[in-house]
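Example record for the data management plan.
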Amino acid sequence: MPLEDAKSDIDAAFMRSDLRGYSFENAFAGATSFLRRRYSKDLSGVDLAITGVPFDQAVTHRAGTRFGPRAIREASSLMTFDPPHGWPTHPLEEMAIVDYGDLAFDYAKTADFPARLTEHIAGILGAGAGAITLGGDHYITLPILRAYAGKFGPLSVIHFDAHSDLWPDDDMTRIDHGTMMYKAVKAGYVDPATSVQIGIRTTTEDYLGFHVITARELHEKGHIWAVARAREIVGARPCYLTFDIDALDPAYAPGTGTPVWGGLHSWQTSAMLRDLAGINLVGGDVVEVSPPYDTTGATAIAGAHVAYDLICLYHWAKVRQ
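Corresponding structural encoding:
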């Protein structure tokens, strides 16, 4: 969007005529679309759709992630003026990206939610676009993976988290953010042999074949080693990246439902996401941002940075094809 448009009486979230380009509006005003992309349900010619899923009925402790998508969008307004630092790619200039808005669902009909979300993501994929999703609690990744597996088959997954989410739960009707990855493996949406979990620092009896890089191992061996290991595991296969914000230490991301000390530092996370450039990323999400537990907004800021880096990873995958 030309700089002179900032002087006119428009709001890029509604009036942007070109889906490409940066935005030069005041960061403290206007509608809070992600990175000032245009809100649109029209996916014609769209490369990537950003969508929110304000669902937190699956949490085991503190609720509040239903407010995550809104907070992440607001935080992203600070990032709309310049190219992403440290990336050899310019996704906002070179891809048509829209904010697809939030999934609409009846909060009082929780049992209907999973199918509704799978349909939502499948619609985006069916239109030829990719999806980056803003959560919401981590349960949302299961219905999303169902949609992705329907298109790509069993996926390789890079899973940043303090928790494995692999606790046994063979009742597929239960909606629980601590068992969603267990169900994704059992349902065949994820190939654990070509998947990796990073930042784990809670106990799990059986990792179901996932490769695991614990937080302590990462701290001791270094983020460069961790990235090399992750790249070796996923290879060139279609890959989905899910980022639970509690992968970060609570010092950097206090606004989450189940914080665990000893986590990743923000600089480590930034470096790892950039160094993953070249993986065959087909989609991703950032989840578990709970604004009520962070008066500073730092957690939402971290979530916005992760989401922007997911956009960069997606774009770099397309550029290299």
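Summary line stored alongside the record: The CA atoms of residues 68 and 114 lie 18 Å apart.
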